[in-house]
Amino acid sequence: MSERNEKILVELMKFSGNNVCADCDSKNPAYASYNLGIFICERCSGVHRSMGVHISKVKHLKLDKWEDSQVERMKEVGNKRAKMKYEERVPPCYRIPKEDDPHILIEQWIRAKYQREEFCYPERQSYTSGYFSGFLMKRGKEDSRYRSRKFILSEQDDTLKYYITEYKDPKAILRISELNVVLSPEKMSPYINSLQITFLKDGTTRHIYVYHDEAEVITNWYMAIRCAKLHRLQVAYPSDSQTELSKYLTEDFAKEGWLWKTGPRTSDGFKKRWFALDNRKLMYHDDPMDANPKGEIFIGHMADGYGIKMGVSTGVKDQGFSFMLTTPDRVYNLSAQSEIDRDLWIEVLERVIEKPLTAQDIAVSARLVRKRTSSNSISIFSPR
Ligand SMILES: [Zn+2]
């Protein structure tokens, strides 16, 4: 009997929809949830198991023994039908995870789908109303200690505020439409339920780092910011589709890591800096968790004099894995830790340089450049 069941399962897996994981789209799922009737990958099977058997019953497709009724259930449901039910009302601002996304995103997506059934019952989506508030642990700018701070998101005012003392004026007011947020950045480990919020203040970038003990809370904050951003964009661009606008809500940094860079003079030595590429902004810091970058380089389009290539400028000593970033104002000599890392940096920067500028990019560039003369703030053209 079991051999027959194994054959049926193999046949079922060939159907479109069943050949990828029901939750993260990765290819060739090896597991199944036999009560939900879906085919899933190894990683997602772990999340399914963690929810408990009252939500999801997991089996390996080949290594476990299958009963007729269980195979029957797989035949009856399958990934496509399950999607229609459990993903029926996913709001357009929700970031649906892909295979390589942070674990928290995948975990919370699976729990939202099957445990909380948020996409069957939209009234359970606490993050779509445009207002969100609560306490988050925020890293201090100077002493790097985390302290509890009240945060309030208001789509109507286009603000995200935080308070040191609840009944006093906010410590900071951020414009929702101008901020970017990254969920669970690796450098914040061991705080996995974390956000890095990045925004422009006085012509320079500021990073805020927060975390919460509960993964669901921090994910809800992330989605709430995305939802508020989407609604603001819909007002500004009423003729654009939600699907199109939802591409511009949040953007993970294309790459982060250590590089060595020289100063503006060829005689300057190479200094180790933590680089982060946020859309068209290449920022560098002393420390990965700094609140402000030491300098920021706006990466424009190739037609405007931006370029990237391997090697060093004349007179500069090659550090082994060097490359040059050319902007209309100067050439940056940079060096990576390995050949692979250098090639990855060149690849991501090339992609940016080849991409046409959006209206938002132009606005960011103008705000960064306009402030460059103020003596105290960090300047993008006189890097230290
Ligand atoms: Zn998966």
Describe this structure in words.
With 384 residues, this protein is α+β, with helices and mostly antiparallel strands. The protein has three domains: 2-101, Annexin V, domain 1, CATH 1.10.220; 126-248, PH-domain like (Roll); 255-373, PH-domain like, CATH 2.30.29.30. The chain has helices at residues 2-12, 42-50, 68-76, 78-86, 103-115, 215-236, 242-245, 339-354, 359-370; strands at residues 31-33, 38-40, 58-60, 131-139, 146-154, 159-163, 172-175, 180-183, 194-201, 204-211, 255-261, 271-278, 281-285, 295-298, 307-310, 322-326, 331-335. The strands form three sheets. The protein has a seven-stranded antiparallel sheet with strand order 7-6-5-4-10-9-8. The longest helix has 22 residues, at 215-236. The chain is globular and about 75 Å long. Mean pLDDT is 92; it is low at 371-384. Residues 21, 23-24, 26, 40-41, 43-44 line the site of zinc ion. Pfam families: ArfGap, PH. This is Arf-GAP with dual PH domain-containing protein 1. Keywords: Cytoplasm, GTPase activation, Metal-binding, Repeat, Zinc, Zinc-finger.
Compose a concise summary of this entry.
With 384 residues, the chain is α+β, with helices and mostly antiparallel strands.
